[in-house]
Specification:
This protein is α+β, with helices and mostly antiparallel strands and 224 residues long. It has one domain: Alpha-Beta Plaits (2-Layer Sandwich), CATH 3.30.70. 29% of the residues lie in helices and 36% in strands. The chain is built from 7 helices and 8 strands, in the order βαββααββαβαβααβ. It has an 8-stranded antiparallel β-barrel. The protein is globular, with a radius of gyration of 16 Å.
Length: 224
């Protein structure tokens, strides 16, 4: 289905050994419900792939608008982590978080697989390249086994505010090379992995400097 709202938050990270089970319990039973209780948060999804070595977890939060992700309610939660959060957050590593304005969103239903494509753009061609990528979403949506294609334009100023939750994590990746992200939903993990070469080839357009991809299965979804 199309994303709910005009913005989304994408979070990639890894986990230290021994944290996986506790992370799953915490994220399912406390963390995601807490986030969905903040005004403007409309849907949350957790994706996993324990067979990759970089960014084995991806979380997607769909928001009413961009200000959702720097609202007083959200910042209050980031600056008041729960006791359970203070135990789990130190096991979260290689953390990358970005807020995005929805540039395109096409689809029906929710796929069981997802591939993320983090896109670095040539600065002087940013707007023109985003227009090209927006049109490409139509072609990507028509690929076999694809059920959704969503493009976001990064707004790093939204997530650059230092918070207490940031201090709990061991490492946080720089966001200055995160210009856009393409989310491609498929019917399963194998299909998400198989479409990566096709989509990567389609993304080789003028103005795209680099593309980093990863594929996941849907582990949990929560909405209102």
């Amino acid at each position: 289905m199309s994303l709910s709202g005009r913005a989304f938050l994408g979070i990639w990270h890894d986990l230290n050994d021994g944290y996986e089970h506790e992370f799953d319990r915490w994220h399912t039973n406390e963390h995601m419900p807490e986030r969905l209780g903040i005004p403007g948060f409309r849907r949350g999804r957790r994706y996993m792939n324990r067979n990759i070595t970089n960014h084995l977890c991806f979380t997607l939060y769909e928001g009413a608008h961009l200000e959702t992700f720097r609202s007083p309610g959200y910042l209050a939660r980031l600056n008041a982590p729960t006791t359970w959060s203070t135990r789990v957050q130190p096991g979260i590593t290689n953390f990358l978080r970005g807020a995005f304005e929805v540039a395109a969103s096409l689809g029906e239903g929710v796929g069981g697989g997802l591939s993320t494509f983090r896109i670095e753009l040539e600065p002087e061609m940013r707007l023109a390249t985003l227009r090209t990528l927006r049109h490409l979403c139509l072609d990507i949506k028509e690929l076999d086994t694809v059920v959704g294609s969503h493009l976001g334009s990064a707004r790093p100023e939204v997530t650059g505010i230092r918070t207490q939750e940031m201090e709990l994590r061991q490492s946080t990746s720089a966001e200055n090379s995160l210009d856009a992200v393409l989310l491609v939903e498929t019917i399963g993990l194998a299909e998400a992995q198989s479409i990566v070469p096709k989509v990567t080839a389609l993304l080789q357009v003028d103005g795209v400097r680099n593309v980093a991809s990863a594929s996941y299965y849907l582990a949990y979804l929560l909405d209102h």
